[in-house]
Amino acid sequence: MAIAIEARGLVKEFDGFRAVDGVDLNIPEGSIFGILGPNGAGKTTMLRTLLGIIDPDAGTRTLLGSSKPISQSRIVGYLPEERGLYQSMRAVDTIAFMGALRGMALKDARDKGRAMLEEAGLGYAADRQIKQLSKGMAQTVQLIGTIVHDPKLIVLDEPFSGLDALNQAKLERMIRAQAEKGVTVIFSTHVIAHAERLCESIAIIAKGKISFDGLVSAARDRLRPQVHLETESLDGPWRSALPADCIAEGNWWHFTLPETGVEPLLTALVEGKAGVRSLSIERPGLHDAFVAIAGESVAAEMDQPLAEELL
Ligand SMILES: Nc1ncnc2c1ncn2[C@@H]1O[C@H](COP(=O)(O)OP(=O)(O)OP(=O)(O)O)[C@@H](O)[C@H]1O
């Protein structure tokens, strides 16, 4: 599997405070990769260090095959957390300017920007100044400017913050469309649901350290599935087949799927005449896996929309 970004022992300190504390990371090429962590976990500092915007105090990183990540900036698109555009510039010129900064000819970037605005349903706003756009529209313009040069790697820092549900859905579609073209998309978030919907792989970061890096399915596999069983009978020899953690609720039985799997359990239920009315096996979600990996206290800081998302 090709690797888009590899980091080994990455450290970044600010006045003796370790914002990034010995990070090892592998981000596969062509996937959607989520960096999950609460506010202040070190996501932004890590992304900026990986991109070469700031240098680490220790450790190494390789970005698209280069140990000098900043030299790859023409094939990288980066949406920083703090959004900011020239308020008096027209939307289409903003995109052209951003494309030119990444090596495009101004005219090509302007033509492409106009086409991409059309595609995003904002063709009518191409010649409007940024200050005449809504917040969501301005964010779309900035996003188009981030990808107008067809980068191989897109890095989005908290891209969902400040977007309403409609614009969040549009952004999700855009991220998926880029990944379908083979582009690697990395985004940071403090909302587990965004990563669960979009990502193939994730890294979990808290207090500058990575506690998990790998496939979402591998994170979920750390927890055993839960079984919910309903029986006709309330008692009988079949009861001994239920594991020790079983919680009874009337005719319902809730327990962790035993290591031996579902077949021996079903056999015991049938032979013991439990009268199975229903049986469902629920795979743990990413939120439960996150709690198991990062702990309750870190999980409690997640999923909390920032104040601006509530506006
Ligand atoms: N330039 C800086 N100088 C001093 N401290 C900094 C600087 N940049 C970040 N920090 C500190 O490093 C820690 C990690 O910050 P960072 O912005 O990387 O976290 P984050 O996970 O992106 O959080 P958020 O989602 O709130 O932006 C924080 O405690 C922050 O105060």
TrEMBL record:
Q: What is this protein called?
A: ABC transporter ATP-binding protein
Q: Which UniProt keywords apply?
A: ATP-binding, Nodulation, Nucleotide-binding, Transport
What Gene3D superfamilies does UniProt report for this protein, alphabetically? Answer: P-loop containing nucleotide triphosphate hydrolases (3.40.50.300)
Family named by the database record: Belongs to the ABC transporter superfamily.
- InterPro entries in UniProt: AAA+_ATPase, ABC_transporter-like_ATP-bd, ABC_transporter_ATP-binding, P-loop_NTPase
Alphabetically, the GO molecular function entries are:
ATP binding
The record lists the organism as Sphingorhabdus arenilitoris
SMART domains referenced in this protein's UniProt entry, alphabetically: AAA
Q: Where is the ABC transporter domain?
A: 5-232
